[in-house]
Write a structure and sequence with these properties.
The protein contains eight helices and no strands. The chain is elongated, with a radius of gyration of 17 Å. Helix content is 68%, strand content 0%. It starts with 12 loop residues before the first helix and ends with a helix. The protein has two domains: 55 residues, Regulator of G-protein Signalling 4, domain 1, CATH 1.10.196; 74 residues, Orthogonal Bundle (Regulator of G-protein Signalling 4, domain 2). The N terminus is likely disordered. The protein is mostly helical and 148 residues long.
Length: 148
């Protein structure tokens, strides 16, 4: 199943090429993030980017009451052994997270988030860069550059 990404509307070739520099660069660009998420969805692994994004949001949370409810939600959604969008982390990390959310801090999910980022960086991201979806975006952007 190929992800058909129709994001080239305002995408320049330079912007699309920037994404190949690093996963950080890709995720920092809203179009890049959308393209990568669509790709992960086509591979049935969007839980990784969803988890990474909720962790980014979680780290910005200031209120301790909100930290607590968000931590519970993230744990239930992504970490618990029967979580609907369970991410692929080792048992030790899963245990570490379950203990740390008893007294939530902004760093509760740091280790798990690093593991998932690393997994995306070494696995999904290189596949994304070789995917038809990404190559089609580059070709479309190239085509619209040539038409200017």
């Amino acid at each position: 199943m190929s992800a058909n990404l129709n994001l080239s509307i305002s995408l320049t070739l330079e912007e699309a090429m920037e994404w190949s520099k690093s996963l950080d660069v890709l995720l920092a660009d809203p179009c890049g993030l959308a393209a990568f998420r669509a790709f992960l969805k086509s591979e049935f692994s969007e839980e990784n980017i969803d988890f990474w994004l909720v962790c980014e949001d979680y780290k910005k949370t200031k209120s301790s009451a909100k930290l607590d409810s968000k931590a519970q939600h993230i744990y239930t959604e992504f970490i618990k052994s029967d979580a609907p969008k369970q991410v692929n982390i080792d048992g030790n990390t899963r245990d570490l997270v379950s203990k740390s959310i008893l007294r939530p801090t902004s760093a509760c999910f740091e280790v798990a988030q690093r593991i998932i980022f690393s997994l995306m960086e070494t696995d999904s991201y290189p596949r994304f860069l070789k995917s038809d979806a990404y190559l089609n975006l580059i070709n479309k952007a190239q085509g619209s550059n040539n038409n200017r």
